[in-house]
Structure formats: structure tokens, C-alpha cells
Amino acid sequence: MGLFNKFDGNSPEFVALCERWDGYLKKLDDRYNEVLAQVDAPMQGMIDGLQYDNIVVHNVLMGLENQTVTELSEKVDQGWTKMEAEMEKLGAPWEIISSQRNKGEQFKNKIADSFSDYHVNTYTRAANKILENVQKHIDENKLHRCTQCAGELPIKTYSFMAVNLKCESCGSVNTYQPDDRIRALEYYVINQLAEANAKELKKQARYDKNAGKEYYKAYYGYLMENVPDKKEFYERQMNERIKWLDTNPFAGDYFR
Ligand SMILES: [Zn+2]
User: Fold this and answer.
1) How far is the CA of 233 from the centre of ligand 1 (A)?
2) Which terminal residue of the chain has fewer beta carbons within 10 Å of its beta carbon, N or C?
């Protein structure tokens, strides 16, 4: 582009180029929706068949994220490299090229946000199914009895940690191990619901450190409330994370 040739943003070549770019992004958007629509019924079937863990859902979600967010974002970058070269050939100025590039960046953010919602919602559905299964098999009236004298031990149904308890009647020490299904609740139900509870704050945390702190407070607050046996443990973790956000200038990247 010479000094005396002015760039014309309305030239048929440039208009056609922008339309090609829009069309390309539209096709990637369609592809994103198509992949998720295809997986809708199989995912529901998988959730209906869950027992006490969500490992199979976790694996499918990893594959889906790769197929959507990762691959489509790479396609945006590949497509943009070609577009940018053609726009430069037409002599488009920096700010015009930059606004076209933004369309691609916005699309990448949009699918990342959308998949993050899908991820949390799917885990929540799985969590509710697992919770239903556990509740069906836990006898709330079951008593824990001393192995020596059969005296009643003061253990709550939803206890999450192994404990040593001294029997009040005979003084012998009993070790209580939580039922595997109760343990499963912590990892596959309460964790997921805590994440769902805090998901909007997690999104804001990408741009705002204080939202990151609020996210940790909401997430760990939910855990502390629902796993009271481990309140101190979670409180310590929460404080460590918040301190890490405070002292690490790049901590916000963790949420991106
Ligand atoms: Zn006893």
C-alpha cells in the first residue's frame, strides 16, 4: 500500500473478506452447538445410569471440552492468521484489523463461558443422581454400636471422617470408618454442588481478583457447611488460596 493509495473499507474485496471471516466464525459456532446437541441424549443416559461416582461423566466432559473449546479455538487462530495476511495485503489499518481479530477472541470467550456452564450443569445433574442413590441406601436410623458391649455410639449418619471413639459404657476404643457411599457424597456430590453454587463468581474472577476471593469463600463456605466434620480442614485450604491470590500477581490467570 503506497503513500497515495488510501485504504477503502467499503471496497468489494474488503467487504467480501469480512463476510468470509464472519461466515467462518458462524460455522465454528454451529459446530459447537452441533457437538453438544449430539451428546445430549447419550449424556442423559449416562447420568441415569450413575451409581456412586461421576468418573465416566468426568472423562466424557474432558473429551468434549477438547472437541469444542480447544479444537474450535485453534481453528479460530488458524483462520485468523490467513485473514490477517489478506487484510494486510489490502492495506487495512491496524485498528480495523484489530476489531476483526476481536470477533474471533469474543467467540473464543463465548464458547469457553458456555462450556463452563455446561460443565457445571452436567456435574450438578450427576451429583443429584448420585445423591438420590446414596439416600436410597443409607438408613438414617441405623445405630452404630460398640464392638465390645454393643452400647450405642454417638456417630451421625453423615460423618465423613474416620474417628476413634471411646465407648461411654465400657471404655473400649472403637474406630469408625465412614461408609464408602458417604465418602462418595463428599467428592462426587457436595464438591460439585459447591462449584455450582460459586460458578458466577468463578467467571468474574478471570478479570477481578476480589471476585476470586469471593469465589473461594462461596465454594469453601458451602463445603464447610455441608461437611462439618472437615470444617477446619476446608477453612485452612480457603485461607491458603486467598493468601495465594493476594501474593501472586498472576494468580488471576488460574481462572482463565
Ligand atoms: Zn462398649
Assistant:
1) 30
2) C
Residue 155 Cα to ligand 1 middle (Å): 14
> Residue type for 103, please?
K
Given a cut of 60, whether residue 139 has pLDDT beyond it is yes
The DSSP element (H or E) to which 144 belongs, if any, is strand 144-145
Angle subtended at Cα 220 by Cα 215 and Cα 223, rounded to the nearest 5 degrees: 135
Q: Structural domain boundaries of the chain?
A: 12-136, 140-178, 198-256
Helix H or strand E encompassing 153 = strand 152-153
Q: How far is the CA of 152 from the centre of ligand 1 (A)?
A: 8
Q: How far is CA 34 from CA 40, 138, 217, in A?
A: 10, 40, 36
Inter-residue long-range contacts of 28-32, CB under 8 Å, 24+ positions, other chains counted: 28/72, 28/75, 28/76, 28/107, 29/107, 29/111, 31/72, 32/68, 32/72, 32/111, 32/114
Looking at residue 173, its amino acid is V
Instruction: Give CA angle at 155 (154, 161), nearest 5°.
Output: 140
Provide the grid cell at 10. Answer: 467499503
**Nearest-angstrom CA–CA distance, 223 and 234:** 7
- What pLDDT shows up at residue 2? 55
- pLDDT of amino acid 5: 64
CA distance 250 to 244: 10
Q: Which of 10-19, 101-110, 134-143 has the lowest mean pLDDT?
A: 134-143
